[in-house]
Amino acid sequence: QVQLVESGGGLVQPGGSLRLSCAASGSGFNIVSMGWYRQAPGNQRELVASITSRGSTNYQDSVKGRFTISRDNAKNTVFLQMNTLKPEDTAVYYCNAQYYYNGNPFHSLWGQGTQVTVSS
């Protein structure tokens, strides 16, 4: 069994910062990549940023230069540092992990989601 636990959401004013964390726990797994997605009301879930086990990153254009994704491989934890937040960043943010489980590939798991609200 693999579990993802997210933390760090909340309410922040425009221009402010938040840091999200997502930790994977369990046994028998090897992370391939981890990422953050978000879903605003009435919208589809969209990729915000992702990072591979080798450190390659990918960002949605709207967050480039404002958000930074990083990871601690030893702790199977991924972070999303969000700066210069805008009201349009308001959404539920979900962590996702792609991993091998007991040597088998193509496993995917979602976190429970954490609310980020940017408002004055």
Note down, in words, how this protein is organized.
The protein has 120 residues and is an all-beta fold. The protein has strands spanning 2-7, 10-12, 18-26, 29-39, 46-52, 57-59, 67-72, 77-82, 91-101, 104-110, 114-118. It is built from no helices and 11 strands. The strands form 2 sheets. Strands 2, 4, 5, 6, 9, 10 and 11 form a 7-stranded mixed beta sheet that branches. A 4-stranded antiparallel beta sheet has the order 1-3-8-7, with no helix packed on it. Strand 4 and strand 5 (46-52) form a beta hairpin.
Secondary-structure blueprint of this entry?
Elements: E1 2-7, E2 10-12, E3 18-26, E4 29-39, E5 46-52, E6 57-59, E7 67-72, E8 77-82, E9 91-101, E10 104-110, E11 114-118
Parallel strand pairs: 2-11
Antiparallel strand pairs: 1-3, 3-8, 4-5, 4-9, 5-6, 7-8, 9-10, 9-11
Describe this structure in a few short sentences:
By secondary structure, the protein is an all-beta fold. It has no helices and eleven strands.
Give the overall shape, derived from the CA principal axes: elongated
> Distance between termini?
41 Å
User: From the structure provided, what is the oligomeric state, counting identical versus distinct chains?
Assistant: single chain
Ranges where pLDDT stays below 50 over 5 or more residues in a row are: none
Major β-sheet profile: 7 strands, mixed
What is the number of helices?
Answer: 0
Beta-strand portion reads over 45%
- Helical amount: under 10%
Annotation, overall tally of beta strands: 11
Which descriptors would you attach to this protein?
mainly beta; 7-stranded mixed beta sheet
